[in-house]
Amino acid sequence: MRFATIVGVERDSMAKLGEACLGDATASEEAMRDLLRELANTASGAFVRAAAEEGISLTCGLPVDLAAGALGASPQGSRQQFVIAPRDNGLRVVFEVGILAKALRRLCVTQLKEGMVLARDLHAETGVMLVPAGTRLTSTQIARLGGILSPRFTFDVAEAA
pTM for the whole thing? Predict the structure, then answer.
C-alpha cells in the first residue's frame, strides 16, 4: 500500500515551532517549509517501520510542499489524524496519514523507471533479499537488476511521487 503523510501547523503556532525545532522564532518561511517536510519524512518513516512490525508493507513518496500545490495523488478512503499539542505552550502540530488511491503496477525490469518504489521485498532464487519493499529505485539499481534477473521477471511498484 502507498500512503501520504500531511503535516500542518496553525499559522499562530509557526513561531513556537520554529523556536522549538530551529531555535529561531523568526525563522524564514523557506526554513519552516523545510522543517515541515522533514517532520513529514520522519513521521512517514516511523509509520513504515511500525507497519513492517505488523507484517504490512507500506511505501511513501518524498515529502512535498502543499503550499506549492505539489501533491500528485491525494489521500482517499482510510485516513487517520494525530495531533501533537504539548501543554502550556500553545503549539499544535497535526499529522494526517492517508492511503493513496493510486494502484500499484506490475512491470518487468525493462519498464522500471528511476524513482519507482518497490511494493514487495525482492528475493533471489536462493532466498537472499536483494531489495527490500519500500525502496525508491535508482537507475543504478535498475541496471543491476536487469543484469541478474530474467526480462520476464515482474515487480509490483508504485509510481514515482
Answer: 0.57
Query: How large is the average pLDDT for residues 85-114?
Result: 81
Instruction: List, for residues 38-91, the tens digit of each pLDDT value.
Output: 998 898 888 888 888 887 777 776 666 655 444 444 455 577 888 888 887 778
Q: Which helix (H) or strand (E) holds 35?
A: helix 29-53
Instruction: List strand residue ranges (DSSP E) for the chain, in order.
Output: 2-9, 59-60, 75-84, 93-100, 105-108, 117-118, 122-123, 129-131, 154-158
DSSP conformation class of 121: -
- Is pLDDT at 13 greater than 60 in this prediction? yes
Q: Which domains does the chain have, with CATH numbers?
A: 2-100 (no CATH), 105-158 (3.90.105.10)
> Residue 74 — φ and ψ, nearest 5°?
-95, 150
d(CA 138, CA 140): 5
Residues 66 and 33: their CA atoms lie apart, in Å, by 10
> DSSP assignment, residue 85?
-
Burial zone of 126 (CB within 10 Å; 0-12 exposed, 13-18 middle, 19+ buried): exposed
pLDDT band at 143 (very low <50, low <70, confident <90, very high): very high
